[in-house]
Amino acid sequence: MSLKKTLTIAGSDTSAGAGMQADLKTFQELNTYGMVALTAIVTMDPETWSHDVTPLPIELLDQQIKTALSIGPDAIKTGMLGTEEIIGRAAQAFKESDAEIFVVDPVMVCKGEDEVLNPGNTDAMIKELLPLATVVTPNLFEAGQLSGLGKLTSIDEMKEAARIIHKRGAKHVVIKGGKALEGAEAVDLYFDGKTYTLLTTDKFQSSYNHGAGCTFAAATTANLANGLTPREAVIDAKAFVASAIKNGWKMNDFVGPVQHGAYNKVEKIDVQTEEV
Ligand SMILES: Nc1ncnc2c1ncn2[C@@H]1O[C@H](COP(=O)(O)OP(=O)(O)O)[C@@H](O)[C@H]1O
Ligand SMILES: Cc1ncc(COP(=O)(O)O)c(C=O)c1O
Ligand SMILES: [Mg+2]
After folding, report:
1. Ligand 2 pocket test: which of 12, 14, 38, 42 has the largest number of ligand atoms within 8 Å of its C-beta?
2. N vs C: which end of the chain shows fewer Cβ within 10 Å?
3. Cα 221 to Cα 195: distance, rounded to the nearest angstrom
């Protein structure tokens, strides 16, 4: 059987819990052939863990995309894009490809950093990426930005944001309440244009959750490439990332990555679904 091919257009997280490293590990765990077009390299100061983001020359991104498209990805995912120009290139890459699946993880901030990567990016994401997205996976903050509603604090507000983001063109929307929404459970909201469904697991006490968002979107991408419906793909991705978070580990005094292989190698976690 030939493997489905999954391409991520994303940044490199040198600590390797998030970014393209998370994507490739997840693509591999879910039996797809993972490929990368790299946008930027993120390094961390060992003393403070503050992040430096160094973009790659745009010509080099163009060359990578050309190579990757010649191999014929079945599904394309975006992660950290960083600039409006790169957002435009990612949209163009999907349009030029034969892929029918486009998963947009609208990365605006890194966990532990409160600085938005580049405020102008939000408009470019709305204009260029949302109309193409099969699934978009904002966290609570990003959903507030993409919908224009600002800070979201309740399921009702998440529903309103999902409706607006869907209207802006994304076919399926998952707003990750995750770590940011108060409560004893980790609740995400899935909207397919008709029905709102809450996806819920226990909220694990782990603060070793670096890379959770990338891992969730990468698992969604691989699941779609492997033929799951969008609803099945996001429910299974939620189970995949829940195992990864529960089994996250302490890397140093600043950060702990998720364990990308925990779903296959340690335990599977139940996801409750409820229409609201
Ligand atoms: N403590 C936790 N326990 C269980 N699931 C979590 C926890 N924190 C986040 N998640 C889940 O991990 C996924 C990524 O969410 P989140 O960490 O909010 O995204 P991001 O990394 O993009 O900010 C979501 O499915 C979310 O519900
Ligand atoms: C290259 C890169 N992409 C994406 C992210 C976002 O990671 P998360 O999955 O924790 O939202 C980070 C965070 O450090 C990163 O370095
Ligand atoms: Mg994220």
Report:
1. 42
2. N
3. 21
Q: How far apart (Å, rounded) are the C-alpha atoms in residues 209 and 230? A: 24
Using the structure block, give the residue that is written with the tokens 């992040």: 51
Query: Is residue 213 within 6 Å of ligand 1 at its C-beta?
Result: yes
How would you classify the pairing of strands 185-191 and 172-176? antiparallel
ipTM value: 0.98
Residue (of 141, 112, 118) closest to 210 by Cα position: 112
Report the C-alpha gap between 211 and 248 in whole angstroms.
Answer: 10
pTM over 0.90: yes
Q: Render pLDDT for 112-130 as a digit per residue (tens, 0 to 9).
A: 555 666 778 999 999 999 9
Please say whether the beta carbons of 30 and 219 come within 8 A.
yes
Q: Is the CB of 245 under 6 A from ligand 1?
A: yes
Q: Output the DSSP codes for 155-210.
A: HHHHHHHHHHHHHTT-SEEEEE-TTTS-SSEEEEEEE-SS-EEEEEEEPP-----B
Identify the bridge partners of residue 55 per DSSP, sorted by sequence position: 40
pLDDT above 60: residue 186: yes
- Ligand 2, CB cutoff 6 Å, lining residues: 10-13, 18-19, 42, 79-80, 107, 110-111, 210-214
Give Cα separations from 63 to 57, 58, 218 (angstroms): 10, 9, 23
